[in-house]
Amino acid sequence: MHIVQVLMCYFLAKRRLEIIGVNSLIQREGEPLHVSKGLILFHSDLKVSSIDGGAMRILGHTKQSVKGKLLSDLLNKDALNILLKYTYSVIQEGIFVQHEMKLFENPDQWVNVIIYPIDANHFSMLFLDINKQKETEAALYRQTEKLNVLNDSAAMLTSIKNPKELLDSLFHKLSQVLDLDIYINYSWDKEQNRLVLTNHHGICNEELETFMYLEKGTAVCGTVAQNKRRMVFEHLDGRGDKILDLIRLLGVKSYVCEPLLSFGELVGTISFGSKKRSTFTSEELDLIHSICHQVTIVLDRMTKVDELTQNTETLEVANLHLKENERKLRLMNEKNEVERESKTKTNFLAMISHELRTPLNSIIGYSQVLESDQKDPLTDKQKSRLAKILSSSRHLLQLINNILELIRIDTNPETIKTNVKPIRIKDAVWDSLHAVSNNAKEKGISLYIEKDVEDITIEIDPIRFQQVMVNLLNNAIKYNKKNGTVTLYWRVDGRYLAIFVKDTGIGIPQSHHDNIFEPFYRVNHAIPGVEGTGIGLTLVKQNVLEMKGTVGVSSIEGTGSTFWVKVPI
Question: Over the stretch 212-254, which tens digit does the pLDDT of each residue have?
């Protein structure tokens, strides 16, 4: 019966192997993978009835009698604790259980344990040695990890544009697979002919200055840059090479440095170190080399893109400067052209004005002679006509004088001389009123000075002051209503004397207030027959500015205007 039970257990175990696919494990080079097996038969009280040589070999026992021994005598404590709960499940429920476990460590011993009921009191425990399967799975896992790293690296290389971020991300990915603690990236500076630390991880701030620059042929990275070949150092804690002095500061046990080459030209170096492991496998070194090759291409591309971007920005700045210079040149040409045209216009006006003033003075002179001739007096009709000739001639002469004054101010402002002297303001205003009294009388306009104004003395050019007042008064008379009034008043405003000329005329629209002091600017009024050229107010402004003062207007259309002048006291 015992032999039958053993055979039955082997048959059941073999059948179980077929069910779970043990014989279909990964094959190596086309040959089937042979799996070591071992079998233990035991009773429901956990007493061992039989154990074969395979089980004894797997469990690490020598040949001995096992009759009457318990499972606990054959299994180590950790294995027993794990398998005991599965064994009781099989005994109590009558089902088979399968479980993978690490039976021993250093070296690892992996087994697949199958516990199967033979009948209500007899049970089997089958051990399958799956170390080869685990090694294959580990190799497959490492290969998958390598492919994942390469795939993730390719994605990073195409998506991340910042070199520091790119290298940090790659290092983080590699460190998870290779147990890395340090990476150092140097760039080759062609101008200074040395390596410059560009990116890093694992170097403390106190050591940064030591690592910042390297000459070719010094330390590991400088030697790699000089020879353009990879260097690998393992078991650093037991080596005394001088070339490793700099790296020892980092406390690494293994170190690999790759040159970064673009079409044979040195771009820089990148190196990795581990404080946990003392060696690298050939597969790991191939993985590092593959990634470094891709990094070289991307970093070189980034450098060229940066150079191209900088050149583009330089060209854009130069283009902006060129456009600005073209604009300035165009404005200068336009200004010169305007000045040339203005000078031509000024010369023409000056010439015409001088040519007109000579015969005009003759007309006025002869008219005055005829007017005052007592020997041969004129008739009333002749006197009326002569008065019109004199009035028109004087108006024309005043217009010509204004044009010449404007030309003088525009062309030679530096030649203007002032004759400042103390004057009494009330006397100066009366003189101005007297100068325009005939004009006001002809228009039916009344002239007034407010009664309560203070008569003060100011330092001012009397001629320019009278020109300003006469022009403002004539303007107030010209644009006044029939039987209107013009009122003058003044007051002291701090260090200035403010003089006001108020009329009851037609007023000035608000939209014209900023332009009425411009040369030849006129407001289109509804009053017919109003003469003028738009020069008077321009002369007012120029003369006031020469006296270090200001001028302005407040007006309501249809009500009247008030012009004011402020001059220093």
Answer: 999 999 999 999 999 999 999 999 988 888 999 999 999 999 9
- Cα distance between residue 517 and residue 551, in whole Å: 9
Cα separation, 274 vs 288, whole angstroms: 13
Sign of the Cα torsion 52, 54, 59, 60 reads: positive
Residue whose entry in the numeric block shows the structure tokens 């040409």: 333
Residue 530 CA to its chain's centroid (Å): 62
CA dist., res. 309 & res. 317, Å (int) = 12
CA distances in angstroms from 354 to 367, 393, 399, 413, listed in the order given: 20, 15, 12, 20
Closest by alpha carbon to 195, among 165, 176, 163, 217?
A: 217
CA distance 247 to 253: 10
Checking 139-146 for CB contacts under 8 A at 24+ apart, the result is 142/283, 143/283, 145/177, 146/177, 146/283, 146/287
Number of H helices, E strands in the chain: 14, 18
Say whether 485 sits in a helix, a strand or coil.
strand
Q: State the amino acid at position 96 in one-letter form.
A: F
Q: How many CB atoms lie within 10 A of CB 533?
A: 14
The single residue listed with the structure tokens 């070339």 is 243
Based on its alpha-carbon atoms, the radius of gyration of the chain, rounded to whole angstroms, reads: 57
CA–CA separation, 248 and 241 (whole Å): 10
Confidence of residue 1 (pLDDT cuts 50, 70, 90): very low
- How far apart CA 353 and CA 156 sit, in angstroms, is 84
Angle CA 290–296–299, to nearest 5? 140
Q: What are phi and psi of 551, to 5 degrees?
A: -140, 150
* Inter-CA distances, 313 with 304, 306, 317, 318, Å: 14, 10, 6, 8
Q: Based on the number of CB atoms within 10 Å of its own CB, is 214 exposed (0-12), middle (13-18) or buried (19 or more)?
A: buried
- Closest to 271 in 3D by CA, of 299, 298, 247, 300: 247
Count Cβ atoms below 10 Å from residue 493 Cβ, excluding itself: 11
Q: Which of 420, 418, 413, 474 is nearest to 447 (CA)?
A: 474
Amino acid found at 10: Y
Instruction: Tell me the per-residue pLDDT of 179-193, one tens digit each, with 9 for 90 and over.
Output: 889 999 998 998 899
